[in-house]
Amino acid sequence: MAQAGGGPRHRFRRDSEMSRDTVRVEAFSDAVIAVALTLMAVELLQFNPSGAADTDLVSRLQQEWRAFLAYIITFAIVGQIWLTHHNSWRYVVRVDQMLLVLNLIMLMFVAAIPFTANQLSDHLRGSDVDQQLSAAIYVGAVLGEALFFNLGWWWARSHGLLNPDLDPRLAASVSRRYLVRPLLYLLAFAIVFVNPILSLLAYLLLVAIYLVRGPGDLPPGGYEKSERGEPSGDHGPEN
Amino acid sequence: MAQAGGGPRHRFRRDSEMSRDTVRVEAFSDAVIAVALTLMAVELLQFNPSGAADTDLVSRLQQEWRAFLAYIITFAIVGQIWLTHHNSWRYVVRVDQMLLVLNLIMLMFVAAIPFTANQLSDHLRGSDVDQQLSAAIYVGAVLGEALFFNLGWWWARSHGLLNPDLDPRLAASVSRRYLVRPLLYLLAFAIVFVNPILSLLAYLLLVAIYLVRGPGDLPPGGYEKSERGEPSGDHGPEN
Amino acid sequence: MAQAGGGPRHRFRRDSEMSRDTVRVEAFSDAVIAVALTLMAVELLQFNPSGAADTDLVSRLQQEWRAFLAYIITFAIVGQIWLTHHNSWRYVVRVDQMLLVLNLIMLMFVAAIPFTANQLSDHLRGSDVDQQLSAAIYVGAVLGEALFFNLGWWWARSHGLLNPDLDPRLAASVSRRYLVRPLLYLLAFAIVFVNPILSLLAYLLLVAIYLVRGPGDLPPGGYEKSERGEPSGDHGPEN
Amino acid sequence: MAQAGGGPRHRFRRDSEMSRDTVRVEAFSDAVIAVALTLMAVELLQFNPSGAADTDLVSRLQQEWRAFLAYIITFAIVGQIWLTHHNSWRYVVRVDQMLLVLNLIMLMFVAAIPFTANQLSDHLRGSDVDQQLSAAIYVGAVLGEALFFNLGWWWARSHGLLNPDLDPRLAASVSRRYLVRPLLYLLAFAIVFVNPILSLLAYLLLVAIYLVRGPGDLPPGGYEKSERGEPSGDHGPEN
Description:
Four copies of one chain form a homotetramer. Chain A is an all-alpha fold. The first copy, chain A, has helices at residues 23-44, 57-63, 65-88, 97-123, 128-158, 168-190, 196-209, 225-228.
C-alpha cells in the first residue's frame, strides 16, 4: 500500500512471498489426465490401416479385440490414478516448488501412458520378446507415475503442506496403502512371462481390489454432522 | 492442531475422513467431454486420404457429406450429454468413492464416442452388415454412457449425496426422464435396419425433443426471487 | 429438510428448480477452445508427408510457409473468439437451457475451425475453384461461430440473464459491436476472389482492428475505486 | 437496478466497465499447456511407421531413443513454463485487454512447441544444416514464449495489474530473473553447432538450474503465520 520506499509495509516481500493453494495445480493435473484418457481412446481404438480395404468390419473387430481390452484396462488404471490424485490432494492445503515439480514429473509419466498402451496392444500378437518388452515399457510408465506420486505425498507430509487437522496416524496409513500399489503392479507385470492377456487381467483385478474402501478414501454418503453442524437426523436415502 | 499424540483432537481421522464437493469431478468430466468433442471434429472431418491427389475439392465434398452429418449428430448427442451432466450435478453436494467410479466409467464410454462415430461414418457406404454393425457399436457407446449416468444419479439419490433441499418428488421425475432417454436411443438405432441415414436423423430428432423443458432442466431467466430476496419487479427484458 | 411428504418445505421443487451460475459453462468453453487451438497447431504445422524422404528441411520450409501463415491467422481468430467470450460472459450472471444450447452450437463451429484452416492451407496452391471453396468453408465456420455467439448474447440480454447492474445502453452498444464483426469477416472473405493470401491478411487486420478498445472491453489497469472503495491515489505504475 | 432511463444508477457503464480477475485466463492457459504436453507425448513417442513391419521392437527402441530424450527435455521446458506461469500469476489481481492478448500470443508459441520438438527429434539424425535449422525453429518457439511472457509481466507491473501488496523491489528482481532465462536458452541453442545432443542436455541443465529457489518462487512449506494469524509453533513435520 506504499511507494517503493516504504518496503517494510508491503506484505509480499523477498522473504515472505505469497503462498498458493492447490486449485490451479489440481485443475492442470485434471486437464493432463483428461487429455491422456481421451487421446488414448483415439489411439487405441483406431483400427490398423493395413488391410483396411479388403476385409469387412466383422473380421476386423475380431482382430482388434485386444485393442478394446487394452483400452478398458488402461482407462481403469488412469481412472484410478485420477481417483487417487483427487482423494489425496483434498488434504493438501498449499503447494511449494518441489511438490509442483514432483507432480509435473508424475504427469510426464501419465502423458506417456497412451503411447505405452498402444505399444502393448500392438505387440500382444508379436514375438515373446516383443510382448515382454512392451509390457515392461507399459509397467514402467505406470511405476514411474506411482513413484513420483508417492514422492509428492511424502514431500507434502514432511514439509507441512497437508491440512494440520489431518491425523498423522491416518496420513501414515494412507502412505502405506499408496506404497503397496506399485508393488502389486510389478506382480501383475510378472505374469506377462506366463501369459500377456492374463497379465492385463491381473491389472484389472488390482484396480478392482483398490476400490475396496481403505484409508484415504472418501467417506460414505449421508448428510454428515461435520458439514451442517446438526445431526443428519431424518435425511435417509430417498429412493 | 495437536501433535501426533493428541489424535482425538484431529478433525480428519480414519473414522471421519474429509469429504469433498463436486467442483473437481465436474471440471474433470468437462475436460474429457471437451477433448472428445474436439478430437471428434478432427477425426470425422478429416478427408479420406485415398484418392486425395486425383480428385478436386468439389467432388470430395460431395463424397464426404456423410462425415459432416455424422459430426453434427454426434456433436448434438455429446452436447446433450454435457448439458444433462451440467444440470444434474448442480443438485449433487458431495461425492463418494462409488459415484466417482460410476462417473469415470461413464467417461470411458464418452471418450469412445469419437471412434464409434468415425466407424459409423466410414461404413455408411459399406455393406448392410457393416452398416448395422457400426451403428450397433455407436449406439452401444451411447447406451453405455446413459446406463452409467443413470446408475450414478441413482446412487447419488439413494446415498444422501444430493442437496437435502431437493424435493424427492422432483428427484423421482428427473430419474424417470433420464431412464426414458436410452430407450429412445434404442428406437433410433433400430431404424438402421430400414435406412442408416434415417437412423441418424432420428437421433437428431431425439436430441431436439429433449430440449423441450422438463424436470431437471434449468429454470427460465428473469431475476428471480430466490436469488435476490426481492420480487423481480421492474427488471424485465431490456432489448 | 423434510421427508417426501412435506414437499412445500423443499426449496428446489418442480416449479422452482435450482438455477446455476456461469462457472462451469465458461470452463467447458475454455476447454473446447484450448483443445481446438492446440490441435490446430498439430494439424497445420504437420508437414505434408509426400516427398518427405527426398527433400531436405530447407526446401520443405519454403513450401510450408502457407501453413505457418494459416496457423498465425487462425490462432488470431480463435484467440479473438476466446477474448470476446471471456469479456462478454463476465456480465452473464446465470444460464438457462437455451443459452447453453446456443453456446454448444457456437462451440461446434469452433471445434470445426482446425479442419477448415487445414483445408484452406492445403488448397492455397490449388485451382481457383478449390481456393475459393476452401476459403468459403473457412469463413463459414467463423461466421457460424459469430452467428450463434450473437444469438447467445441477444438471448441473455432479452431474458434477464445479464447482471442487473449493467447499463442497458452499454449492452446495446456491445451488441452493435458484436454484430459488425461477422460483416467484416464476409468482406475479408470476398477478397479471396482477388487473391487468397491477401484475404488471409485481411482477417489478420480485422483482428488487429478489434483490439482498439470499444464497448464491452475490459477497463484499463490501475487500482480503481470500484474495487477497493477508496481513491486509487498513490498507486501509480511501479516500474 | 433501474430501468434504461436511470442510467447513472447502473454500476457498469460505458465509462466504468466491470473488471475481471485472473481465474479464467489461468484456467484457459492451463488447458492449452496441458493439451500441448499430452499431444507432444503422442506425437514424439509415435514410432516412425517406415520399416515398422520388418524390424522388431528392440531394434526400433534403439533407433527411437532420441525421441525419448526430446520428450523428456521438452516436457521439462514446458513444465517449467507452466511453473513460471503458475507462480507469476499469483501476484496478478486483475487483467486488461493487452495482458490477455500478450498471454494469447505466448500460448501460440506454447502450442507450437510439440511440432518443433517433433521436427527436432526427426532431424537429429539428418544433415548438419537440418539439425541446426530444426534446433533454431525449436529455440525460436521457446524464445517467442519467453519474450511474450516477459512482455506480459512487464505490462502487468507497469499498468497496476499486480497485487498492491507486492514489494516493488521483489517485482523488479523477479523481472530480472525472468529476463535472464531466454538468454540462457540462446546459449543452449548455440551448442547445437558443436553437438545437437549436447545442446538438448544443456536445456535440461538450464531447467534444473531454475529449480534453485529465487525471487518469485513459492515460499517453503510449514504452517506460516501469514495464513493462520498465529505462530507456526508446534506444527512441525509429521513423518
